[in-house]
Amino acid sequence: MRSLETDLRVIRTRESIREALVDLIEEKGFDAIKVKDLTTRAKINRGTFYAHYQDKYDLMNKCQEEVINEMAGIVKENYPDMIESLENSSTTLKPFKTAILLFEYLNQNSRFMQAVLGPYGDLAFQTRLKNFMWNTIYEKHSDTLIKEEKLLVPGEYLASYISSAHLGVIQQWLNSGRKESPEEMGRILSTITMNGPFYAAGIKN
To answer: What do you get for the CA distance between the two ends of the chain, in Å?
Structure first.
């Protein structure tokens, strides 16, 4: 069994590598990064890096998987609350607790999210996030938010609209300096999602 000290060392090493990745994406873009850049910035040797990751692509993939898995955990834990909010929705919409918690998570990991979702990050991550968002509300189980038999438009178009809109709101918030609190962003996203963009624009009652 590994000691607590060893586990903490591993955690600190991975955090250092992840911080180095973010720094270098901001400075030169992911495509231009070499493993040597990462080891120099994280102040580790190549052997230490390769003990954790195969290459920079494996590093990026594992960082993204960690983000997706942690966000999925937040959604899974608060899924009943989301269902209840939908069933008891009224004209006075309260922001989804799940949305607030997700924005709190994004706020805590803002540098990584902004770097990877930015123009010099990894475009594939946007697709992974969109798939995560869609699967969250369209998973095929009895409590799914969206049921196929009730769809008024083809599912793939609805999936594209919802996931792209949500990702756009997240990117706008990150790129504008996160001026609004997670609570306010939860209200904003819930209002647009539940009532539609024309209601949010004050055009439709």
So the answer is: 62
Cα–Cα distance measured from residue 38 to residue 55, given in angstroms and rounded to the nearest whole number: 10
DSSP string, 73-98: HHHHHHHHHHHHHHHT--SSPPPPHH
Distance, CA of 75 to CA of 69 (rounded, Å): 10
Dump pLDDT digits (tens) for 34-64: 999 999 999 999 999 999 999 999 999 999 9
Assigned token pair, 110: 């803002």
- Which pTM does this prediction carry? 0.83
Domains of the chain: 1-53 (1.10.10.60), 63-200 (1.10.357)
Rounded Cα distance between 135 and 97, Å, is 19
